[in-house]
Design goal:
Blueprint lengths: L22 E6 L2 E6 L10 H14 L4 H8 L5 H7 L9 H7 L2 H14 L1 H11 L3 H12 L8 E2 H10 L4 H17 L7 E2 L12 H7 L14 H14 L15 H7 L3 H15 L1
Antiparallel strand pairs: 1-2, 3-4
Helix pairs in contact: 1-2, 2-9, 5-7, 5-13, 6-11, 7-13, 8-9, 9-10, 10-11, 11-12, 12-13
Bound molecules: calcium ion.
Length: about 280
Amino acid sequence: MYKVFQRALTLTKRSKYRLANLVVTVAFCGSTTVAQAVTCSDTGGQFEAWKPGMAELARSEGVGERGIRALMATNYSNATISADRNQRSFRYSLDKFMQVRGADTIVKQGRSRKARNAELYAALERQYGVPAGVLIAIHGMETGFGGFMGDTNVVSAIATLAYDCRRADFFRPHLIGALKLIDRGSISSDTRGAKHGELGHTQFLPGNALAYGVDGNGDGVVDLANQVDALASTANFLRAKGWRPGQGYQPGEPNFEAIRAWNAASVYQQAIAIMAARIDG
Ligand SMILES: [Ca+2]
């Protein structure tokens, strides 16, 4: 219910890939020529023609046959592109953003959740150093505490964004990540997520799910649709981004940088810090 508008991206780090990486070698009539693969499109045309070159790159990055099959089965997602072109909420003032995203409701419900599950949040803070308020604020902001985790095919969404010219370099590693998650059996070619392919309770992009996902509930599986796994993975991400236990997380304090690594939008970062302090207070 909080996802009135689409969210921004989780990472600011840019891919190191360049278009040159997509130049593929093609065997043709017994001789070998080098062909420039289709690298991106603003309209989705030639999506099918783009896949073989992308598959070649994916193989070179270690993606296996199951992942490659999933890539080849993707469909261009107009819903994803439409959402990507309309991320209006990040242009709001902080006050307006918090109002639109239901910050007061998240804080109220968040305080109640913290009280009901005190031991879980205490255990997460002991292990990762991240206090409850931050995890709860992110959980509430991302999916209304798991109320809506998305209905878009994850692999198709992320493949579409990796093909779209606007941020192809940013999303290509997340597509590789999604295909590796398929190889591992963590997700399938049918898994649903948000419009940008974000997964689970706290909406990890696939590359981040691969890098930072942990098995919080100890059942042997990393499943971001499981609340405890998602919260532990979120704490693990923040810790990996430099979270310092016991330090502050407001703007100007050491841990605000870790929140900035979670989401690139300034209003989002500030809103999380404010809501988290109200939940923790
Ligand atoms: Ca698990």
